[in-house]
């Protein structure tokens, strides 16, 4: 049953359409696919011969299910592909049972739909190549819009935000608005903007969110945002960049290598990311003085492209903040959210420098391939991110002054 909601979404959202002809990587392979209980029961009870044959081994109950939305799991085959996908890359559910029989997950992806209080927030995940191109290849900043729209919760995968307190929601929304404004600050290096986000959050964490005078707390958040100036951090960044102890390549290379030890096995890596990774490893293999080579490669092969197209990475970071804000912006653990943003940016940049060195330059197609495949491989791996946070603690890379080492050029 459809219900009308106030919807907050990036303006690119309504332009997106699934485009199999231009899709660079199928959404039906190489990751964990969950389905809702209604769909699970429908497939189990189906009398269609093809569907019955698939569900025998292709469908199981989810032992870690939290609600009816993630009740079942589609077990990928030996090729790490959804078993409902036939040899012609067509969905047997769609063919034999009709579009309405697709799971909520399949109907929704790459859209993210989150109910926050009486508002629904919608965006697109960058793990879809078509969505990434629509959202990122636009030299204008991502804009958000509020509209009224009808949404059928029974037909789509809609996540309910665990945050129910309307005052807390408003505080998080104000923090997010400021973060996005800082990330979209013109005529400033993106790394400097990310550092300014850290400066903003450092000040925010001094506020007592439990203060019963809500309007007073909200005003303090707004005041801190108004006072932020990227210029305040330029001297700190410059001094850090000139440090002889800079170990950016070492730390990012270590964080990347941890993905092979923690979280999903390599069989769940995006095919596109494996291709990118092989080129990155080849670019750095056998090189002496890696920290210097890494910096020279950035200046020679990647920076000229980013100087003209910096909006792509800006849009990626802004989209990450918006789409995952209910996961990221926990008032009790804001700094961990910031650590994740810094590492995401650092690892994307690390991979891009390697790719640029390998190809002797960068282009839109290559950058989009990296962002899409990186998003699919890294963003949702909770086990991996826990290991990342532990490493940052062990290496003393949790304070703003030290995080500069991970992200500045």
UniProtKB/TrEMBL annotation:
Tell me the superkingdom of the source.
Bacteria
State what protein this is by name. Lysine-N-methylase
Q: Identify the species of origin.
A: Alkaliphilus serpentinus
């Amino acid at each position: 049953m459809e219900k009308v909601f106030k919807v907050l979404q990036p303006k690119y959202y309504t332009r997106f359409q699934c485009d199999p002809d231009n899709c660079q990587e199928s959404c039906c392979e190489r990751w964990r696919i969950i389905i809702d209980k209604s769909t699970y029961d429908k497939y189990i009870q189906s009398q269609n011969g093809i569907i019955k044959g698939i569900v025998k081994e292709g469908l199981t109950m989810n032992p870690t299910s939290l609600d009816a939305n993630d009740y079942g799991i589609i077990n990928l085959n030996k090729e790490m592909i959804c078993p409902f996908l036939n040899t012609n890359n067509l969905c047997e559910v769609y063919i034999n049972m009709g579009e309405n029989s697709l799971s909520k997950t399949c109907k929704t992806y790459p859209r993210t739909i989150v109910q926050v209080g009486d508002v629904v927030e919608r965006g697109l995940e960058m793990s879809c190549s078509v969505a990434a191109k629509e959202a990122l290849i636009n030299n204008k900043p991502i804009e958000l819009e509020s509209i009224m729209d009808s949404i059928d919760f029974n037909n789509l995968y809609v996540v309910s935000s665990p945050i129910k307190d309307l005052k807390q929601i408003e505080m998080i929304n104000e923090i997010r608005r400021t973060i996005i404004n800082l990330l979209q600050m013109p005529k400033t290096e993106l790394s400097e903007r990310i550092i300014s986000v850290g400066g903003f959050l450092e000040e925010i964490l001094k506020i007592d969110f439990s203060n019963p005078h809500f309007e007073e707390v909200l005003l303090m958040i707004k005041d801190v945002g108004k006072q932020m100036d990227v210029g305040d951090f330029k001297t700190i960044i410059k001094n850090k960049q000139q440090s002889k102890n800079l170990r950016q390549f070492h730390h990012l290379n270590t964080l990347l290598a941890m993905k092979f030890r923690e979280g999903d096995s390599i069989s769940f890596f995006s095919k596109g990311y494996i291709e990118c990774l092989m080129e990155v490893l080849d670019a750095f293999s056998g090189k002496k003085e890696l920290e210097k080579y890494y910096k020279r490669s950035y200046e020679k092969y990647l920076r000229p492209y980013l100087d003209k197209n910096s909006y792509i990475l800006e849009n990626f970071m802004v989209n990450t903040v918006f789409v995952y804000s209910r996961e990221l912006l926990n008032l009790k653990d804001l700094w961990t959210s910031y650590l994740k943003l810094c590492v995401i940016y650092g690892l994307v940049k690390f991979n891009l420098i390697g790719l640029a060195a390998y190809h002797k330059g960068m282009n839109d197609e290559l950058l989009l391939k990296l962002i899409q495949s990186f998003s699919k491989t890294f963003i949702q791996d909770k086990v991996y991110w826990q290991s990342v946070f532990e490493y940052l603690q062990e290496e003393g890379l949790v304070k703003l002054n030290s995080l500069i080492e991970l992200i500045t050029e």
